[in-house]
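User: We ran a pulldown and think these components assemble together. Before we commit to crystallization trials, I'd like a predicted model of the whole complex to look at. Sequences follow.
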Amino acid sequence: SQTIHQWPATLVQPVGSPLSLECTVEGTSNPNLYWYRQAAGRGLQLLFYSVGIGQISSEVPQNLSASRPQDRQFILSSKKLLLSDSGFYLCAWSELVAGTEAFFGQGTRLTVV
Amino acid sequence: SQQGEEDPQALSIQEGENATMNCSYKTSINNLQWYRQNSGRGLVHLILIRSNEREKHSGRLRVTLDTSKKSSSLLITASRAADTASYFCATDFAGGSYIPTFGRGTSLIVHP
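Assistant: Here's a predicted model for the assembly, 225 residues in total across the polymer chains.
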């Protein structure tokens, strides 16, 4: 069966520090991968998606970047965090066809102080 | 990108009552999905309805889709306190790659 792992669960980082959130998927190959951000009481904002290794599409210009070094690994990074980067970050995957559900990780609560 | 918008933003009901939440979208879709999010957790898939379907059931969940009005509704019957969560609809583009895009969700509180 497929599983998705996302870590860490919580993170408190000072302004200006770097960020690296990691997400890995097991039990499937060549999945679509997604990073979302959810501000408090708000909906999910799609940040990045990837349809293959090294293929990253950015939905929103921002202080963040994403990479997919391996088929089932998706990394969200920042060189210098801003206060506005605080939020709940969710990684998800889906099959590479339309009409299938997305599976979500448990999320990372990032607080930039 | 396509985005569904849920309505109402918040809903508070008593246990045993039915809860109805709606989703509207702007362009043609392949399918529409509903997800649930418990506080501080990831989203869990509830049900998918395809563009050629009008109604779908899963346990206490009933989803309708009206493509002429570009809207969908999620009905939870005989609600329970454990149904307390946020509910999101996700849409994709007809003919495009499936990139699930979400609205702001409906926050449902079921009082015991």
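The first strand of chain A starts at residue 3 and ends at 7. That may be worth checking against your pulldown data before setting up trials.

User: Thanks, that helps.
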